[in-house]
Amino acid sequence: MTSVKIELQALRIIEKNFYRSGNPLGIKTKSPAEILGISRNECRTILYTGQSYQLMPYVLRILSIIDKFGKLEKLANLFSNLNFSKLIIPKMENRFYSAIRGAANALKNAKIDFGVLLNEPYDGSLYYDLGMDHIVDENEKIIRSEFEKNKVERIITISPHSCYMLKKVYSLDVEVIHIYELISNIKCNKKAVIHDPCILARKLGIVTQLRIFNAVEPENTGKNTLCCGGPIEILFPQLSLQIAKSRGNELISAGLNKIATACPVCLMNFLRAGFDARDILSFFSGDANED
Questions:
Q1: Domain range for 242
Q2: HEC-encoded secondary structure of 84-135
Q3: Does 16 lie in the same domain as 79?
Q4: Under a CB-based contact definition with an 8 Å cutoff, are residues 218 and 195 in contact?
C-alpha cells in the first residue's frame, strides 16, 4: 500500500471522527470546567482551550503506538482498526492539564473575571492544517452556535492554534485575545530554555509577552524560531519526530535541559522526542511537579 493511500485513509478516519464526536480523534475530552473543578458562570468572557491540551495526551499515545510499526502496511492496518477512545492516556497527561490550571490561576492573579463552557467545541485547527476546508466550515458553524447560545462576547485563548483559528480563519462576532496579552506583567522565577511557537511568534506577533519566567534564549528564537515538527505527526510521524529531535537538541544546547513552550502541539512533540518539556502556563498551576 502506498503512502498516499495511507494518508488518504487517515484523513477519512479524521473526517469520520468529526461527524461522530466533533474532534479529530472521535473521543469525548474533558471540558475545562471538569479540569478546573468549576462550572460556567454568567461572565461573557470565557477561557477557551479549544480541546487542544486535552487531545494531545491521546495523540502522544497514538504516536507511541505508530512508532512501533515500521512498515506502511502495518501502519495502514493500525489506522483502520484503532479505536482512539479506548487508548490509555499516558502519565504525561498532567503536563497538558496543568497548563489549563495555570492559565486559570494566572488570570485570577491578574484579577480578570472569566467563565468556561461546559460543552466546549474543538477549535478545528487540525482540519485547517490538513486542508479539510469543508470540515473547517462545518466546525465554524458549531463554534458560532455554541458562542451565541452562551452569549459569549470575549474569548481568552491559550493555544496558539485556537487563537489563530478564531481570529484569522473564522468569521466570529466576538473579541479574541491570547492569554499572554493579558498576563505579561505576571512573573515567576522558573528557569527553562524557551521555544517560541511558530504561530505565536510569526503569525500573531506574540514574542516578548512569553518572557514571564527566566527564559534562556536558544540560537534561533523569537520570530526566527524553528519548527517543532507539527502539525504533520499523524500523516508523517517519522519526519515529525526527526524535526522535533533536531529542534530539541538545538534548544538544550543553550545550556539547560528543561524546555518551556506555549503550544500544546510543540509540548507534545518535544515530549515524544524524549525531552523534559513543559508549558509556560504550567509554571503558574501550583502543581508539585512543575518545578
A1: 191-284
A2: HHHCCCCCCHHHHHHHHHHHHHHHHHCCCCCECCCCCCCCCHHHHHCCCHHH
A3: yes
A4: yes
Amino acid identity for residue 218 in this structure: P
Whether 20 and 101 map to the same domain: the answer is yes
Domain tally, the chain: 2
The domain boundary, picked from 122, 149, 181, lies at 181
Question: Mean pLDDT over all residues of the chain?
Answer: 88
Among residues 270, 207, 178, 195, the alpha carbon closest in space to that of 233 is found at 270
Domain assignment present for residue 289? The answer is: no
Q: Which residues contact 190 (CB under 8 A, 6 or more apart)?
A: 213, 214, 260, 283, 290, 291
What's the gap between Cα 190 and its chain centre? 21
CB-count exposure of residue 276 (10 Å: 0-12, 13-18, 19+): middle
DSSP H helices, 122-236, are 125-129, 133-149, 160-164, 198
The total number of residues written for the chain in this structure: 291
Residue type, position 150, single letter: N
Same structural domain, 71 and 94:
yes
What backbone torsions phi and psi does residue 259 show, to the nearest 5 degrees? -110, 135
- Could you read off the pLDDT of 65-124 as tens digits, one per residue? 777 765 545 555 555 555 666 666 667 788 999 999 999 999 999 999 999 998 899 999
Same domain as 265, residue 164? no
Cα 279 to Cα 200: distance, rounded to the nearest angstrom: 14
Q: What are phi and psi of 175, to 5 degrees?
A: -80, 130
